[in-house]
Specification:
Distance between the termini: 12 Å
Structural class: alpha+beta
Number of helices: 3
Order of helices and strands: EEEEHHEEEHE
Strand order of the largest sheet: 3-4-5-6-7-8
Number of strands: 8
Strand content: 25-35%
């Protein structure tokens, strides 16, 4: 599949929350009782790209990793302040896969975006911290990943 140049994934299937943000529709539960749940996930390899820099100390590596356990989803929820942990049931059923775009620099790892792919490798949701939309620079990284892995950005 070819990737599109846009990076403005929608809030389709989401409803407003009391704080004015958005939350998923439906009752997909993923609580502590599911923390040991695992699923095979999508047959797409994790990805990394290193932004070239003459100064090795300033090199940045971007990685996109698939989250394949309820514990991973809970950690992503806590780190990103959104509700991706509620997608465990959807992932277990094979209806979606969840991915995390992260930046590694100077020994630190920073979560940047959480991505939901549907079963046809389409990015149906892309959200940053507290459900913010992706920044332009993040979209460029996302497009590299999409092109390398045959992901379609909606």
């Amino acid at each position: 599949m070819a990737s599109r140049s846009r990076c403005d994934c929608s809030y389709r299937g989401r409803t407003p929350s009391r704080r004015g943000g958005a939350k998923p529709c439906g009752g997909l539960a993923a609580g502590p009782e599911q923390s040991e749940d695992r699923w095979p996930g999508a047959a797409i390899a994790d990805w990394s790209w290193t932004k070239s820099s003459k100064d090795r100390a300033k090199r940045e590596e971007y990685v996109v990793v698939q989250l394949r356990t309820a514990a991973d989803l809970v950690a992503e929820t806590r780190g990103m302040r959104h509700c991706v942990a509620t997608y465990a049931t959807k992932c277990i059923a094979g209806h979606a896969s969840i991915w995390s775009l992260r930046r590694r620099a100077s020994g630190d790892v920073q979560r940047l975006l959480t991505i939901e792919l549907d079963t046809r490798s389409r990015a149906v949701q892309v959200r940053g911290f507290a459900n913010r939309p992706p920044f332009a620079e993040e979209c460029k990284i996302l497009q590299r990943w999409a092109q390398a892995r045959g992901i379609m950005l909606l």
